[in-house]
Automatic annotation (TrEMBL):
InterPro entries: AMIGO, Ig-like_dom, Ig-like_dom_sf, Ig-like_fold, Ig_sub, Leu-rich_rpt, Leu-rich_rpt_typical-subtyp, LRR_dom_sf
GO BP term, example: cell adhesion
Predominant location: membrane
Span of the signal peptide: 1-22
Protein name, UniProt field: Adhesion molecule with Ig like domain 3
Organism encoding this protein: Amphilophus citrinellus
Top-level division of the source organism's lineage: Eukaryota
Length: 453
């Protein structure tokens, strides 16, 4: 055998080479499918990392650039954490071979421009964290193709303009968080913002920017506030705008809206008409209360009900049978069958010139007395049956006296009864009896015990 041609040697060599490729760098921790090299003082990427890892944590280091093709050896990578590093830009094509990425954290770096090639091909990406960088600009098609995106964080940067038009229903169907708070946005393309999918609008964070107060801006936030979006509700104090672009005269516009009183006319006329259909089922003679809860939550609401039997009902038209509470709830004290039908409540917020409606379909059933009669008949039927069974059992005492005669089984009254019934099953006549009482098993048990005592 010649040493040099030993296939085992090649295998060993291959394994050695392979294993060096797979080894865990001494500064990192490799745990099952995760590798953590965080806070390891790294100034550049480690030489080799296990190829099978799904999660790679390189955060809190001093990495300033990503060598091309570095992630090619980790095709299964799903989570890449690189927060708190020194990245100024991303190498073109760096993520080309890691299209399985779902979570990418590049927050607290030094990125200055988000170029359109940065995230190309990451169509599985769900979360993108870019907050606390030095971003001044986001190129127009940066987010295009990222069709799985759910959350994007651009907060704490210096962004002055954002390509809202690139986000549409079909391009980003799952996007529910677009955080642009604490940036330097001044004039937004409010038409583009207004055209954003509802889900994106609900999760659009714009507080602490350099917005310039104007009616269109105000009406946008006013509507979001009206709808109770968390993005607005939770940061009322931080929503600021400056009058005429002068930063010294900035106002918390969701708190002090005096400046916008003149805007009323410019508020979009499209009204949030909420139609909530519900069904109410009552028996004639019963009292019913129909609430008028709509999307309007103001304190100065006025309510009108349109009823099928009585027409319009307002505060002024209350009578003894019907009343309208200040909160819009309509009460009918004794319903009649012909009170059935569709009740429509309109809540009007006079100040904001908004109305919303609520519909309730009321069905008044036949007089309850008739229903009770049916129940009563059934009950009576049951009682009669019970009495018949009792009488039947009392009038046929022979079998039990027969039991008592057989001494060995007479240890207790109860056992004799049980024995009695098993013995009885041999007789055809008693079979009929059993069949008769079967459905009322519960009652029969009780009766038997009574008989035994
Ligand atoms: C990475 O992708 C390129 C094409 O984009 C391909 O040629 C190359 O073989 C891939 N590398 C790996 C390690 O998969
Ligand atoms: C507002 O943004 C500035 C930077 O633009 C930041 O320093 C500050 O902490 C932010 N304030 C809040 C309340 O988020
Ligand atoms: C609103 O309009 C009135 C009259 O046109 C004007 O006097 C007032 O200054 C305006 N208020 C604001 C805050 O612009
Ligand atoms: C409206 O007021 C009435 C009477 O005060 C009350 O019974 C009802 O629960 C209130 N409805 C709502 C929806 O708050
Ligand atoms: C309700 O129905 C009765 C007959 O069932 C009728 O006499 C009465 O006029 C009706 N009332 C109204 C308000 O329609
Ligand atoms: C909605 O409100 C406007 C103005 O407040 C009013 O003229 C209109 O009649 C209302 N619509 C309905 C259906 O009540
Ligand atoms: C109201 O309810 C009744 C019974 O459930 C149904 O027949 C009727 O079509 C409903 N009306 C409306 C407008 O939904």
């Amino acid at each position: 055998m010649t040493c040099g041609l030993n296939p085992g040697f090649f295998l060993m060599l291959f394994c050695l080479l392979h294993s060096t490729e797979e080894t865990c760098p001494s500064v990192c921790l490799c745990i099952s499918d995760a590798v953590s090299c965080s806070s390891s003082g790294l100034t550049k990427l480690p030489h080799s990392l296990p190829s099978f890892c799904l999660s790679l944590d390189l955060s809190h280091n001093h990495i300033s650039w990503l060598s091309p093709g570095f992630f090619n050896k980790m095709p299964r990578l799903e989570n890449l954490l690189m927060a708190h590093n020194q990245l100024k830009a991303l190498t073109p094509g760096i993520f080309h071979n890691v299209s399985g990425l779902r979570h990418l954290d590049l927050s607290s770096n030094k990125l200055s421009v988000v170029e359109q090639h940065y995230f190309q091909g990451l169509w599985r990406l769900e979360e993108l964290l870019l907050f606390n960088n030095k971003i001044t600009r986001v190129e127009a098609s940066t987010l295009s193709g990222l069709s799985s995106l759910k959350k994007v964080y651009f907060s704490l940067n210096q962004i002055t303009d954002f390509p809202f038009f690139s986000i549409q229903d079909h391009s980003h169907p799952f996007l529910s968080m677009l955080d642009l708070s604490s940036n330097r946005l001044t004039h937004l393309q409010w038409e583009d913002v207004k055209a954003l999918p509802r889900l994106v609008q609900r999760g659009l964070y714009l507080y602490n920017n350099s917005l310039i107060c104007d009616c269109f801006m105000y009406s946008m936030f006013w509507h979001w506030d009206l709808r109770g979006y968390d993005s607005v509700k939770n940061f009322k104090e931080e929503h600021i705008c400056s009058i005429n672009g002068d930063p010294r005269s900035s106002i918390r516009f969701l708190k002090q809206n005096r400046f916008f009183l003149n805007c009323t006319v410019e508020k979009p006329v499209s009204q949030p008409v909420t139609v909530l259909l519900s069904n109410v089922l009552v028996s004639e003679g019963e009292r019913v209360r129909l609430d008028c809860q709509t999307s309007l939550t103001g304190t100065d609401l006025s309510f009108t009900w349109l009823s099928p039997s009585k027409g319009y009902i307002t505060k002024a038209s209350i009578d003894t049978l019907i009343s309208l509470f200040p909160n819009g709830t309509l009460e009918i004290r004794a319903t009649k069958v012909n009170d059935s039908g569709l009740y429509v409540c309109t809540a009007v917020d006079i100040k904001q010139a908004l109305n919303a409606t609520r519909e309730v379909n009321v069905t008044v059933l036949l007089p309850a007395a008739e229903l009770f009669n049916t129940g009563y008949t059934t009950l009576l039927g049951c009682m009669v049956t019970t009495v018949i069974i009792l009488v039947y059992l009392y009038l046929t005492p022979c079998r039990c006296s027969y039991c008592k005669r057989s001494k060995p089984y007479d240890s207790s009254g109860l056992s004799s009864v049980l024995f009695c019934s098993t013995r009885d099953q041999t007789k055809n006549q008693t079979d009929k009896h059993v069949a008769f009482i079967e459905p009322e098993h519960q009652t029969i048990k009780g009766l038997r015990i009574k008989v035994a005592i």
